[in-house]
Amino acid sequence: MSVDENRRNFLKGMIALGALVVIGGLAKPILDYATVSGEIVTTFPKIKVTNISQLQVNQPFLFNYPLTNEPNYLVMLSQPAQYGIGPQNNIVAFSAICEHLGCIYHFRTSLAPYGGPDVPGGHCPCHGSLYDYLDDAKVVGGPAPCPVPRVILELDSSTGDIYAVGMEPPTIYAHGPSCSSDVEYDLQGGSVD
Amino acid sequence: MSGVLERVQKWIEERFGIKSVDNILRPIPNFSFRPDYWTGAILTTGFIMQGLTGFLLLLYYVPTPDQAWASTHYIMSSLPYGSLILTFHLYDAYAIILIAFLHMFRHFFVGAYKKPREAMWFYGVILGLITLGFGFTGYLLPWTVVSKSATDVGIGMLNYFPNWLTAPLKSLIVGNGTDAAELTRFFALHVILLPLLLALFLFLKLYTFEVHGIAPPLGHSESENVKKTSWMPGGILYVLMLALFYIGGLLIISSVFPATLPPEYSVQASMSVTPEPDWYFLWIYQILKLSIFEGPNIIYALILVGLMFVILFLVPLIDTREGRSPSERPVIFTLGMIVATSIVFLTVWAYLTPGLTIPFYQAVIYIGGIALIEALAAYAALRRRRSSASAGKVHPSIAMIVMVSSVIGASASLLLLEKGYLISVLLIVGFVYAAMTSISKIERLRK
C-alpha cells in the first residue's frame, strides 16, 4: 500500500496555512486594541495657572501643562530672568521633569551648593543635572542632554491672572524622541484633565 | 497493610486512569538528595506561594491611582494577617529573584547546560526574564512615591531608542500615558500575562527536566548506572521537606520583619525623593550611572545590558565542548566568575552611591581589578591542577572557594570604599590569598 506523500504534504500545508491565517488575523486586532493612543490634542490650550498676587518670591508653584502628566514649576525669582514676565520680568515656568531620566528635579534658590553657578534653578537629585533659570534653563551641570522646556506664559495685567499658552522646544521628557524640537509631541501620551 | 494500599491503588487506576507515580515520573538518582540539586524545586514552591498570596491580595487591592496605595495600606494595617500576607508576597518575590540568580550560576558553574540540556538553559533564561518582569511590574502596584517615580524613570529610558521602536512599545506598556493607564496595564501584566507565560515555560522546563533527568555530578557520565529512589514516597518527601523549610523560613522572617509601606505617590511627594529601582535592578542601574553613559549615550548602556542577556541566553551554543569540569573550560568558567562577582559588586556599590554619577575610571579600576585577580586565581588553580600528579579535573568546590571569597572580598572592599581603594585592593588580595591557601590545603588533604 503506497502513501501519497504529495497529498499528505498538501493537507499539512493547509493546516499550517490555516493556523497562520488565524494567528495573523488575530495579531492585528489585538495589537490595535492594546495600543490605543490618547486623546488627540493638536493645539496648546490656554490654561490659567495662578494669580500673580498668590506668588511669593522663590516659592515654586507646581502645575500640570499641557497634559496632566506633565508637571511644571512656575516661580517668581528675586531677579529678572531671560523671557521672564511680570512687572519685574522675573516670573518663569519650566517643565519639572528632568531631561536626563525623567526624575522630578528640585527648585533651588542657588545652584552653588550643588557645584553650579550662584543662580536660582533646578537641581536633579537623581544624577545631579543643573538648570539655570536665569538663562532659559540652560544646562550648567550634570548629565542632562538639553535644557528643560519653558512654558510660554501670558499675564493679564488687568486681573493679574497668569496663563500658560504653549511650550517652547525641546520636548518634555518622555514625550517624543529625546530633546526633539517638535513640540507637538508634548501634546501626546496623556490626557488634558 | 500494603495489600490494602495496592488494592486501593488498583481501584483508582482502573476508574480514574491515574497510575502509580513510578509509571509517570522517572525515579530520582540518590546523589541528588542535596539541597543544591533542588534550587529549581524551591523556586517552583516560591512561585506557587506567589500565586496563593497574590490571590489573597487581589481580594482587596484596587488598581487605580487613587485607590492603589490606600487599598495596600488597608491590607497592611486593617486586615487580619494582611501585613503578613503582603510581607510574605514581597519577601517571597525577593527570595525567588535571589535564588533564581543562585540557581542560574550554580548550573552555569557545574556546566549543567551542556548537551543534552541546552533547552533547559534557554527556558531558564526566559523564566528569569519573566521573573524580572514580575519584579518590575509588581514594584509599581503599591503606588508608593519611590516605586512610581523609579518605574517612570525605567519607562522613560525607552525614549532614548528610535521613535519607531519607542512609540509602539510605550503604547503597549503604558497605554495613553496617563497614570491610570500605566497602573492598569502593569496590573494586567502582573496578574494575567506574566503568570500565563510563567506557567507555560515552567511546564516546558519541567517536561524537559523529566526527559533528561538530573545532570550527573562532575566526573560521572550520563550513562553510568546510579542508585535511584522512587518519587513515591522518597522524592516527594524530600522535595516537600525543602518546600516546607522554605515556606517556614520565609514565614518566620515575614513575621519578625514586617514590610513597611512608603508614602503614597504624588508629584509633590516625588519632589523630595531620589527614585531608586528595587535592589535586584541596582547593578543595571549602576551601569547606567557610569559617566561614559551620560546624556544621550545612555542608549549604549541599554544596548550593553541587552547584549549581556543575549549572550547569557546563547551560553550553551557558545560553550559546546563536552567537558563540564572547570579545568576543561577555564575561560568561560572564569568569565562567569567575573560576571557573578561584578553583579554583586555593582549592586553593593549602587546601594552606597544613590543618585551619583560614577566616574568611568573608577569602574575600570574596580571591575578590572576583580577580573584580573580572578583570572590570576583561576590560572594559578589551573596550573597547580595540571602540574599535580593526579592531573585531571578540578573539583568545583575549589573554584567555588575562589569565587565566594572574591565576592566577599570585593563587597567588603566596597564597604571600605570611603577609606580609599588601597585598603580595598589589599583586602581583595588578602581574600584571594586565603582562598588559594585553603585550596592547597584541600588538595593536600585529598592526597
Describe this structure in words.
The complex is a heterodimer of chains A (193) and B (447). With 193 residues, chain A is of the alpha+beta class. Chain A contains one helix and ten strands. Chain A is elongated, with a radius of gyration of 26 Å. Chain B has 447 residues and is mainly alpha-helical. Chain B contains 17 helices and two strands. Chain B has helices at 2-16, 21-24, 39-58, 68-77, 82-109, 118-140, 145-156, 163-174, 179-212, 231-256, 267-270, 282-288, 298-318, 330-352, 360-387, 396-415, 421-446; strands spanning 28-29, 228-229. In chain B, α12 crosses α14. The longest helix of chain B is centred in the middle third of the chain and has 34 residues, at 179-212. The model of chain B has no long low-confidence stretch (mean pLDDT 84). Chains A and B meet through loops of A and α7, α8 and α11 of B.
Descriptive keywords:
heterodimer; A: 193 residues; alpha+beta; three-stranded antiparallel beta sheet; 16% helix; 24% strand; B: 447 residues; mainly alpha; two-stranded antiparallel ribbon; 17 helices; 2 strands; 70% helix; globular
Work out the number of β strands of chain B: 2
> Strand share of the residues of chain B?
under 5%
Largest sheet of chain B: 2 strands, antiparallel
Shape, principal axes of CA atoms of chain B = globular
**Poorly predicted runs of 5 or more residues of chain B:** none
The portion of residues forming beta strands of chain A comes to 15-25%
Write the layout of secondary structure elements.
The complex is a heterodimer of chains A (193) and B (447).
Chain A lengths: L4 H30 L12 E5 L9 E4 L6 E6 L14 E5 L10 E3 L12 E3 L6 E3 L5 E4 L9 E6 L4 E7 L26
Chain B lengths: L1 H15 L4 H4 L3 E2 L9 H20 L9 H10 L4 H28 L8 H23 L4 H12 L6 H12 L4 H34 L15 E2 L1 H26 L10 H4 L11 H7 L9 H21 L11 H23 L7 H28 L8 H20 L5 H26 L1
Antiparallel strand pairs in B: 1-2
Short structural summary:
The complex is a heterodimer of chains A (193) and B (447). With 193 residues, chain A is an alpha+beta fold.
